[in-house]
Amino acid sequence: MSYLEYQKMILEKVSFDKFLFEKELRKSLSMVSSQQEVAELKTWAVARYGSEHADALSRNFSAQRGLC
Length: 68
What we know:
- By secondary structure, the protein is mainly α.
- It has one domain.
- It contains four helices and no strands.
- The protein has helices at 3-14, 18-31, 35-49, 54-67.
- It is globular and about 25 Å long.
């Protein structure tokens, strides 16, 4: 299992709590090793949690883009 797949599993498990979800999303973004993985994580997260965690996704992926 890749680190990215592991992080997706963690995000699924904490998705019930907005605070935990955002904390794990930040951790995931700090650990991915390439822009391709960031894009894959974003695509997956928005498709799966776009309505439930829109604010957290927007904040964290906007911040990530600013670093690139």
